[in-house]
Automatic annotation (TrEMBL):
This is Pregnancy-associated plasma protein-A. Keywords: Disulfide bond, Hydrolase, Metal-binding, Metalloprotease, Protease, Signal, Zinc. Belongs to the peptidase M43B family. One of its GO terms (biological process) is proteolysis. Residues 1-21 form the signal peptide. It holds the Pfam family Peptidase_M43. The keyword Plastid does not apply. It comes from Flavobacterium xanthum. The lineage of its organism: Bacteria, Pseudomonadati, Bacteroidota, Flavobacteriia, Flavobacteriales.
Length: 314
């Protein structure tokens, strides 16, 4: 397992030295592999706002200190959720049942009550975590749109073309819309603008009933993206043998797709068995089913007094 020791300067480099391109969404696209654009969106936001890297560096320093001191919340965090539905067709206007199914999945996955949690290999059973965070659907906002498909430029979050977020300092905003470019979803990391804060998902990967289809039909896109919203990185650190800033996850070569056979070995130093079933990898929905204690501590740190999302702490 990894030992994380990074200076603030190194963190600025980590956050800012990423691919600064974003995809332009075509009118239609089929998702062949899981596509999360959170890192690309972050790179674009940093290019537009050089102070964002410094804010995120401060959040990282605070997170490290909170984790070292044990000054974390006791798991008593309840997240109100507002789901913003943008639709051009009747199918895109997803039902309340489909929306509630997504909230149910989040509650299962973040409380280790998902039925597949028991499939965690013995090698990782000692670090598999019950994060202890719950989600409550507060409201659903719907709006008809003429937009065929949205890209990652946050247009769906504007009042003119989409739906502006509801009190984002105390409410998790989720947008369901038709995303192009082969993107299933993306999230804004802590430290970004309140005007664009939240999680965006393609309507065909939202929840586990209704319009969902293919291998992304169990609601795990939202689990992955909410993980980013709670300050988790991709498990491979968005670089070959990169760091996700968590000490108890193995070092991964890169993203994993489909459902790799276990054990799947990394070629990074020490050739560890990769944690392909972690929610922050890129496997199919049925292939991901756990967070770790290190990820739990990292998420919990943002909710303590002084943390980036302290407004949600109870």
């Amino acid at each position: 397992m990894k030992k994380i020791l990074l200076s603030a300067a190194a963190l600025v480099m980590l956050f800012s030295c990423q691919n600064d391109t974003t995809e332009t969404a075509p009118e239609t696209s089929a998702v062949a592999k899981r596509g999360c654009a959170s890192q690309e969106v972050l790179a674009a936001q940093m290019k537009a706002d050089p102070t964002l890297a410094l804010r995120m560096s401060k959040i990282e320093s605070f997170t490290e200190k909170a984790m070292l001191s044990g000054r974390l919340v006791n798991g008593n965090v309840e997240i109100p959720v507002v789901v913003n539905v943008l639709y051009r067709t009747a199918a895109e206007n997803i039902s309340l049942a489909q929306i509630q199914s997504q909230i149910d999945v989040l509650n299962e996955d973040f409380n280790a009550t998902n039925s597949d949690f028991s499939a965690t290999p013995a090698l990782f059973s000692g670090v598999a975590a019950n994060v202890g965070i719950t989600f409550v659907l507060q409201n659903v906002v719907r709006k008809s749109t003429r937009t065929t498909s949205f890209s990652t430029n946050d247009a769906m979050k504007s009042a003119s073309k989409g739906i502006a977020p509801t009190t984002p300092t105390t409410v998790l905003n989720m947008w369901s819309c038709n995303l192009g470019g082969g993107i299933l979803g993306y999230a804004q990391f802590p430290g970004g603008s309140a005007a664009t804060d939240g999680v965006v998902m393609d309507n065909n990967a939202f929840g586990r009933t209704g319009t969902v289809s293919g291998v992304y039909n169990l609601g795990r896109t939202a689990t992955h993206e909410v993980g980013h919203w709670m300050n988790l990185r991709h498990i491979w650190g968005d670089a070959n043998c990169g760091s996700d800033l968590v000490s108890d996850t193995p070092t991964h070569d890169t993203a994993n797709y489909s459902v790799p056979a276990y054990p799947h070995y990394s070629t990074c130093t020490g050739t560890p068995v990769e944690m392909t079933m972690n929610y922050m990898d890129y496997t199919d929905d049925r292939g991901m089913y756990m967070f770790t204690n290190g990820q739990k501590s990292r998420m919990a740190a943002i909710f303590v007094s002084g943390g980036a999302r302290a407004g949600f702490g109870i």
